[in-house]
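Regression report. Comparing outputs from two consecutive submissions.

Submission 1:
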Amino acid sequence: MNTHHLFFSFLLCLVSFTLSGQRSISGRITDAENSEPIPGVSVFLDNTTIGVSTDAGGNYRLKIPGEGSYRLVVSHVGYQSVFKDIEPGNSSVKFNVALLAIELEEVTVAVKVKSRRNDIQLFWKTILGKNPSRRTIQATNPEAVFYYYNPETQILKVTCREPLQIVNYETGYQIQYVLNYFTHNYNTDISDWRHQCSYTELEPVNKRQQKNWEKKRKEVYHVSLTKFIKSLYNNTLQNDGFVLATLHQNPDQLTILSPDSILSAKSIDNSKTLNYKNKQLILICYGRPVTAADLNMIKRTQGGDLLQSLKNSGIIMNLLHGDAIRVYPDGTYTEKLHITPVNTTISLADLSMRLPLDYAEDATVSGNESVFDIIAQYFKQQLSVFPQEKIHLHTDRDFYVPGEKIWFRAYLTDAATHQHSTQSRYVYVELISPVDTLVRRVMIHPENGMFYGHLPLTELIPEGNYTLRAYTRYM
């Protein structure tokens, strides 16, 4: 029997560029009671579209889209959510989590008896910005919310046993909403709450719906909190449609502020500090570049008349108050930013008026941003949606005869950090003939974090130099 030697060259498919300085966060999620890995845990960066579910080994890995301040959220039904604030910078982060089972509070037991219609309406109107509707925005699992009103203190407390699934039909996003707490004091009429959310784009049914979503997203972005933070950092408020002013009680009038008067110089971590403690600030959102006529109207009109004028013009106005806050060029910020509507029921903090931080509209060139900055932003956004990976393929030998099996093992790593990647669930390995035709393809699922398998050779395979090619869907 003639022996046919088969010579194989190896082609590793990968993207030829990576973005230097890009950081990531990775780790393993386990049960705190028995240390067993928990698959299917939702891990995401707050207020972004960046998120994954843990694999069979409880592992996860995420790209961090910018160098600013982000919050990691680990959420799973039946367990207490875990949060980690990621410090600004370019270093990758390792974060392992042992989840604790939820211990239900006693106040949630009697919620069905204690809840009132006006409590329910107040809660949804507060977090959504408008009444729930299939035409605008609503939660698909409202039964997960529990209300408890204490008639003695007149305080409403709201809890959720699982993340709320909210659909914004106007902007085309599915939102996973993790509520930390919500309280409303009927004595002071003040609500206080904290949440984290993850965005997923919906699939449009037709091109018309896609265009409507894109139009609405641009409209919302022009008066969004993210756009305001970026404009404040870059000192381009008026060009981007914002006016920041302080309200003087005596006389009752507004004074237009320059960002330089309330912002510190750029610090080592590339942040600027917004100092406006003990000042009453007014944010006017025009949704278009501010004109000289707009500024003249503000300067010559006293406070009360100005609010009425803006209301008649349909312009959104918000009152900001709080302590010092650090802002970053990617639109993120530290601490809690309090926003209260003045002349309208709409607030920039409402879910209906928010978009994910990685929304593509923020790549518009403005202010101090250079073209290279914008290109870098595009690359970061692309890498966060389409992570780049490398495959190192290891075979048992280089020469094979017909009828044998090509045994191999694939090592999958992140292209930027060369760390173990958990983005892809499968590796595809192909055998290509000397005339560039596909001979055989196999799809390999990981076992214990490793990809390994074999390609069988038929007895009639011709002699020649073959190519072994490995890739993932991200390649």
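Submission 2:
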Amino acid sequence: MRFAVYLPYKIWFLSYIGHPAVIYIPVTVNSIGDGLAEPVGIFFSSLFLKYGIDVTYKTKSLYTTKGGFWSGSFKRSIPGSLCVFATTAMIIYYNKNEFTYC
């Protein structure tokens, strides 16, 4: 599904903007940041839980109705969310030359 969402943006960036590397920012963040969020979250959650600190939180899905494919509540962890944030910050910093100040 990710490909179906990113393909129109990639075509638009290549034809109008001219910076093809910009499309790789969300792909990299989604692949690396979200891919590492679960193992990092599980590892650090179990580590903190040994000391009696719960670093998890619950969140609900956005823009879905009850009974939808991704509907319901989900358990997330702060270290997993920080992994996605840190990956996003590093990828944007690495590709900072692709942005203009206009």
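Expected: both submissions complete independently.
Actual: both completed, but the second showed a warning that disappeared on reload.
Relevant detail on submission 2: Residues 24-50 form the longest helix (27 residues).
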